[in-house]
Amino acid sequence: MKTDSAFLELQDNAPRVRVWFDGQPLDLPAGANLAAALLAAGVRVFRHTPVSGAPRAPFCMMGACFECLVETGGGVRQACMLEVEEGMKISRPHEAEAGDATL
Ligand code: FES
Questions:
Q1: 31 compared with 103, residue with greater pLDDT
Q2: pTM, whole model, 2 decimals?
Q3: pLDDT exceeding 90 applies to what percent of the chain?
Q4: Phi, psi of 80, deg, nearest 5
Q5: How many other β-carbons are positioned within 10 Å of the β-carbon of residue 70?
């Protein structure tokens, strides 16, 4: 899935691996920063706040703001602190609590 994004990959010819984001297949550069790769692939909402359902996305890209939280590997993790690995299953945390605020 490649969509319009304000973010570009620096190495467009990097080897790709298949991951799933909310059940949708994405072919991302192996070993890339997960948050950056998802942004470049067009993912704009990483999670919704559990209280208001407001959409959130990476902000600091250095592990400080926690806006990039995703569910993967059996827990909620900061996407900006992870590397893209083959077969990753990634989902938005708190989706059940966010009601119909999905964007
Ligand atoms: S973008 Fe701030 S912690 Fe990941």
A1: 31
A2: 0.84
A3: 74
A4: -75, -10
A5: 26
Q: How far away, in angstroms, is 69 Cα from ligand 1 center?
A: 8
Q: Could you tell which of 45, 65, 76 is best to mutate to test the pocket of ligand 1, judged by most ligand atoms within 8 Å of the CB?
A: 65
- How far apart, in whole angstroms, are the C-alpha atoms of residue 99 and residue 102? 8
Alpha-carbon gap, residue 70 to 15, rounded angstroms: 23
35's enclosing H/E stretch is helix 34-40
Across 80-88, average pLDDT: 97
- Order of all β-strands in the sheet with 16-21: 24-29, 16-21, 89-91, 69-72, 75-78
CA-closest candidate to residue 58, choices 39, 41, 72: 39
